[in-house]
Each structure stands twice: as C-alpha cells, then as structure tokens.
Design a protein that fits this description.
Layout lengths: L2 H9 L9 H22 L1 E2 L11 H15 L4 E8 L2 E12 L5 E2 L6 E2 L4 H15 L26 H5 L18 H10 L14 H15 L3 H13 L5 E2 L14 E2 L2 E2 L7 H5 L9 E3 L1 H12 L3 E2 L2 E2 L3 H7 L3 E2 L5 E2 L4 E3 L6 H4 L5 E5 L3 E6 L4 E7 L11 H15 L5 H11 L8
C-alpha cells in the first residue's frame, strides 16, 4: 500500500454525492458558537518592545477572522504576526475540517501552500544556484534545459520566468490525457508562447514548473530533495515539504473533493497533482511557525540561527522591486504590487513583498518595520470554493496599521462590519 493508498484508507472515499449546500450551511451554523469560543480561547498575543503596546491584538484581529468564518468565507484559519524577530500574535480559529467529521483548528496545523511554493521553495532554490554561479538570471532557460527551446522559447530567460514576463500560458492543459512528472515536463517543454517575452506581466504556473525542472537538472537532485536539504532542514522547518507523511494527516487542513474523494494531505493543484505532487509552482505543505522561520531568515539577510540560506546581497536582489510592463511591481518570484497582492502593497510599506496561494494562504514581509503577516486557510474545503480576499485585505490593513503605529485600527474594524456584507469575490 503506497502513501496515497494509505491516505485513502484512513479517510475513505466518498460513497455518495456531497451533502447539499444548505446542509453544509446548517453544519456551519450549528458549529459557529464553538468556532467563536475556539478563536478566543487559543488566540495569544505576546508584547514586543517596539510593537504598539496599546492595542490588544486579539481584540483587534480575532473579530475580523470570526466575522469571515460566520460569513462562510473559510472554515478555519491560523494567523501569525511577527515583529522584531518575535511572534507577537499567533491564533487558530474555527475548523481544519468540516468533513468527514468536524475537527478543530490548531495553531500548528499544516496547510497546502499552493503558489507559496513558488517563493518558499523554487525561487529560493534558483537564487541559491545563482549565488553558486550555476545559473545566470539573464541566460536563456534553454541553456539549462535544451528541450525547453522548442516552439520559439529559446530566448526566454530565467529572469523572465521569475517575473512572469515569459509570454507563456497560465497553465498546462489538464483536460488533455497525460499523467506523471515526465509527461508534465514534456508538455512544459513543448508549450508555445502565447505572446512575445518581455512585453507583459502575465502570471503563469508554467514559468515555475520550468524553474523547478531547471533546479533539478542543474543541481542533480530532485526538486523535493533539493529544497529539503538546502532550505527546509537547515532552517529547522520540520513540518515543511512536498508530499507530507501519513503521520502528519491528523494536523493537515483538508481541501476539496476530487472525483468523489476528499483530498487530505494531497496537493490540491490539478497540474501538480497530475505530476505526482511535486512541481515548482505548487505542492509544498507547511505551518505558520515554519513560515515564520522562513520570514525571519529573509529579514535577517538570508540567515537564521547560524544557518545561511542566502547571502544578504542575494536577498536584496531577489526582493528589489522592478516595474514591469503595465505598471506591475515584482521582485524575483516575489509579488509587491499587482492584481495578486490583495491590498498588501497599500497596507504595508513600499519595500514590502510577499505571495498568496490559491488554497487561501498568504505570507507578507515588511523589512522597513521588520514585521510579517501569515494567514493560512483552506478556503476550498469542502465544496471547492470559498473566499479569503476580504479576510486577507482586512487583516493586512489592521496589521500594517499596527506595525506603522497608525491609529487606524478602530475605523478599520468598523468598516469590516460593513464590508463583510458584500463584495466577495471568487478568489
């Protein structure tokens, strides 16, 4: 019995169709009183010398999260705020799973990071190889993977892949009949650009599928082994990696259903799933505590607790904003101000950077205030939809205001009660 079969054995296959939306809503309402209690009970705030002492972080942040739970945006969440190398707020709210049975969220639960994989794993790995002189940012990607030159891609550079200016399509065709890592990589190598490189910012998972493949080819190690050995293990990120073990399932937030089976501990992204759970664009699972260690490493100039992951000049290069065609601001891999930054560019300082994930995750870092915000949710559980945009925006505004010692907290809380009534998007 392989790992996937063991997971299926533990959590079972759905015997019949999903419960109706009204039944699920009834379940949410029945559990809501418990959700409120859980959120207040586990929220903790620790003072830091230069963090604003007057606002009670729990009083400011917890109502925002609980309001979103009540509105059905997400079944549960973990929120962590760091400042000045300390965790100043760490809280769990709601449920890690509604089905097959309700399970309360814990602050150390594990989440499918989705596109946070792009920066936590793949970008970091690429920049390590740039440091080592084994990859050049302005060299064509085909230098490191000759098959990638097919169909007019020979001039696309590593930098263009990292900044989503390659001209490639958003994703591989998951409706076509293919399966497996090599089949996915073959399709990435054979894909044709949909526009010339360098003329527009257009977010593409294929960019990072290619970068993940290049990391493996240049390093001589599979991507999952490389990032474990060179990033996660040195940083002490003990709950982070691709394809989490069966022993971790009791702490993993469930996602959605696929062909009648609840995905729990398996990557949600359809392309990464078909590639075996490991790809440069998605597939890493992690916790808020581990992501906090990663954020602290970047704020320390690439080092944490004696483990040097990147040189300070590499962190500076990676997080230096570049204005791309159309006005989008991105670093290398990292978002700064784009359609995907969900207001974080306004909430935090002009030097801030971060990334989001389709499953409902966010990591945003502000070197000017030495602070970071981590929001982990599984918005797709269980129906395959949900919305975390409003929650991200409102928490970002509150935390950004607090880290900048702004008096805006009260007005933002008041606005939240109005904005929660409408304006919800699909993502």
């Amino acid at each position: 019995m392989d790992a996937l079969e063991r997971k299926q054995h533990l959590f079972g296959r759905r015997a019949s169709r999903a419960p109706s939306g009204s039944l699920r809503q009834s379940l949410r309402l029945a559990l809501f009183a418990g959700v409120l209690f859980l959120g207040v009970d586990v929220a903790t705030a620790q003072p830091a010398r230069s963090f604003p002492a007057a606002p009670d972080l729990s009083a400011a942040l917890a109502p925002v999260v609980m309001s979103d739970l009540a509105a059905g945006g997400v079944p549960g969440a973990v929120v962590l705020v760091g400042a000045n190398d300390r965790t100043v707020y760490r809280a769990a709210f709601g449920l890690r799973a509604l089905e097959p049975a309700p399970a309360p969220m814990s602050a150390d639960d594990i989440f499918d990071l989705a596109s946070l994989t792009k920066v936590v794993a793949t970008t970091t790995a690429v920049m390590q190889l740039v440091e080592a002189g084994r990859i050049q940012l302005d060299e064509p990607a085909a230098t490191y993977w000759p098959a990638f030159a097919a169909n007019g891609k020979g001039a696309i550079t590593i930098r263009q892949l990292l900044t989503h200016t390659s001209g490639l399509a958003p994703d591989l065709d998951v409706l076509a009949n293919w399966n497996g890592l090599e089949a996915g990589l073959d399709r990435a190598a054979a894909t044709a650009p949909v526009r010339p490189a360098g003329v527009a910012f257009a977010y593409s998972d294929i960019n990072f599928i290619v970068l993940g493949a290049i990391v493996a080819r240049v390093s001589g190690e599979p991507l999952e082994a490389y990032v474990q050995r060179h990033i996660f293990e040195p940083l002490g990120m003990t709950d982070t990696g691709f394809d989490p073990p069966v022993s971790s399932l009791v702490r993993i937030a469930a996602t959605d259903y696929e062909q009648g089976r609840l995905r729990w501990g398996e990557v949600q992204d359809p392309t990464a799933d078909r590639m075996g759970g490991v790809a440069g664009h998605a597939g890493v699972f992690s916790t808020a505590d581990d992501l906090a260690r990663f954020a602290r490493m970047l704020l320390h100039g690439g080092e944490l607790d004696g483990a040097r992951i990147l040189k300070p000049e590499t962190v500076a290069l990676m997080t230096r904003p570049a204005v791309l065609p159309g006005g989008t601001r991105r670093g290398l891999g990292w978002d700064m101000s784009s359609a995907y930054s969900v207001g974080m560019d306004q909430a935090f300082g002009p030097s801030s950077y971060g990334h989001t994930g389709y499953t409902g995750c966010l990591l945003w870092i502000d070197p000017d205030t030495q602070s970071y915000l981590i929001i982990l949710t599984s918005r797709l559980h269980p129906e395959g939809h949900g919305d975390v945009k409003l929650l991200r925006k409102d928490l970002g505004q509150l935390v950004g205001a607090l880290t900048k010692r702004s008096p805006a907290t009260a007005s933002l809380q008041a606005a939240r009660s109005v904005s929660a009534l409408g304006g919800r998007g699909a993502y």
